[in-house]
Amino acid sequence: MNGAAKQETQTDAIFEHHRARAFGVAYRILGSASDAEDVVQEAWFRWRGADISTIRNPEAWLVTTVTRLGIDQLRAARARREIYVGPWLPEPLISTALETEATPEDRLSLADDISMALLHMLERLAPEERAAFLLHDAFDYDYGELAALLGKSEAACRQTVSRARKRVQEAHPRFDTNAREHLRLTNAFSAAITSADPQALIDCMSEDVVFYSDGGGKAIAALNPLYGADHVSRFFMGILKKRPENLAVTPATVNGLPGFLMYEGDVVHSALSFGISGGRISTLYMMRNPEKLTRVESF
Q1: What is the chain's pLDDT, residue by residue, as a tens digit (299 residues)?
Q2: Which of 82, 139, 249, 267 has its CA 20 to 30 A from that of 200?
């Protein structure tokens, strides 16, 4: 292998070593796996064009690049989301693989900063607020690092994170369940769907449950959030009355937490995830937009 080829291989290896972190930052900023992949790909092109011999900290360089690209992408995406049909939900990260290495409690903790509840709430923050909050609270960047990354003073970054954290704490639902209880209620809700039992559905939910469904104008979904167990149960019964004979329900991990998928034959029909509090489901997130259901990992 000649010198140029060896250098190229080393360049590629360094990027691949940090790819997962770059994607993690981009996904949390954008709430979209497809947009995050586009941002990481653009960062890759810029990395290949850079003189890496002058880059002392490749991870910092990549996170900075991904963050700035993500902020620009989010500003552009906000305009599209304002005219989105019905509620906009983050594109879920879905796996049907059985996770055996981590305990349920570990998975619940790891999922906290990518939960649908948090990502949905973060849509209320301005792009730079969102990035600063996530980098500080989810990725443990200090204010000095944030200042260099965002091109602001440490004092400004401290104010931005404080303001964002306050808004998150005020609006982010408080889920007080443990992982075992989360899985139990997920399974109970799945069984109620499978048996099309409206009372069993109601029994799983709190009286003031809130239901968000994202069809994007491409699949049947509620155009506004639904409130209350009775309304949510009626919506599901309406879907199930028209269900095809080959509709099947299977467990899945949705953004790190137990959820389930509904299949129509080999095609994913819907993905559901939940927020649990007080021993009942208090929030439901149902993804029906087929454009956001193309990435289901099964390995």
Answers
A1: 555 566 677 888 999 999 999 999 999 999 999 999 999 999 999 999 888 889 999 999 999 999 999 999 999 988 888 889 999 999 999 988 655 444 444 444 445 678 888 898 899 899 999 999 999 998 999 999 999 989 999 999 999 999 999 988 887 666 656 778 888 999 999 999 989 999 999 999 999 999 999 999 999 899 999 999 999 999 999 888 887 788 888 999 898 888 999 998 888 989 999 988 888 999 999 999 999 998 876 43
A2: 267
Instruction: Kindly list the distances between the CA atom of residue 81 and the CA atoms of 31, 50, 85, 90, 144, in Å, as whole numbers in the listed order.
Output: 12, 34, 8, 11, 33
User: All domains of the chain, ordered by start, with CATH?
Assistant: 3-94+123-171 (1.20.140.160), 179-297 (3.10.450.50)
